[in-house]
Amino acid sequence: MGEDLCKILITEDEISSRLDELAAAIDRDYEGKEILVLGILKGAVMVMADLARKMHTPLTMDWMAVSSYGSGTKSSGVVRILKDLETDLEGKHVLIVEDIIDSGLTLSWLKANLESRGPASVEIATLLRKPDATTVDIHVEYVGFDIPNEFVVGYGLDYAEKYRNLPFVGTLAPHVYGG
Ligand code: PRP
Ligand code: MN
Ligand code: MG
């Protein structure tokens, strides 16, 4: 495992401290409301679990699985719903939780899809955002860290389904993905 990574980009403590701040901001913004927190499988599992435990706003959880990457390192631009959510969104305040926004293609498609279902609001929280995401026209209310354009894994993020269980975010060594 150790030689598969170049470096630790964001430590476990840094993630936890930043999620404290995001949870506090979300609690302030949604005071008096209830949130449907929507985690995007599989990458968002870790941030969903940790962020939700730091929030005090009443919430329910649901999950969607969409995929744009497959097992490669580049976004295909094709978004597929692998699992839809089970909640009627009518009148709900939806907070999408993502691990990373890279090209932004997944979220711009997903946000439009969810907005067509009649929710009261749809906002986005992401742990990580890469530079390309700013070229797509979507508003992201809660961003943990803006990171450089490196291939990162850990804390939910995979390469070919591996490394999701690392407690930190690290940069994958190029030899692992043939770079
Ligand atoms: C990754 C990541 C985001 C998406 C971001 O998911 O977790 O959901 O890609 O890419 P984009 O901004 O370029 O669209 P992936 O499709 O790899 O599925 P996974 O969460 O199951 O790993
Ligand atoms: Mn994902
Ligand atoms: Mg992935």
What separation lies between the terminal Cα atoms?
18 Å
E-strand count: 9
Q: Kindly report the CATH topology.
A: Rossmann fold
Return the CATH class.
Alpha Beta
C-alpha geometry:
globular
> What's the architecture in CATH terms?
3-Layer(aba) Sandwich
Beta-strand content bin: 25-35%
Note the run of SSEs as H and E.
Answer: EHEHEEEHEEEEH
Average per-residue pLDDT, rounded, comes to 93
- Residue share in helices? 10-25%
Rg, Å, rounded: 16 Å
- The domain count comes to 1
Q: Bound small molecules, which ones?
A: 1-O-pyrophosphono-5-O-phosphono-alpha-D-ribofuranose, manganese (II) ion, magnesium ion
Note poorly predicted spans.
Answer: none
Largest sheet: 6 strands, mixed
Can you list the strand order of the major beta sheet? Answer: 4-3-2-5-6-7
User: What class do helices, strands and sheet pairing give?
Assistant: alpha/beta
Number of helices: 4
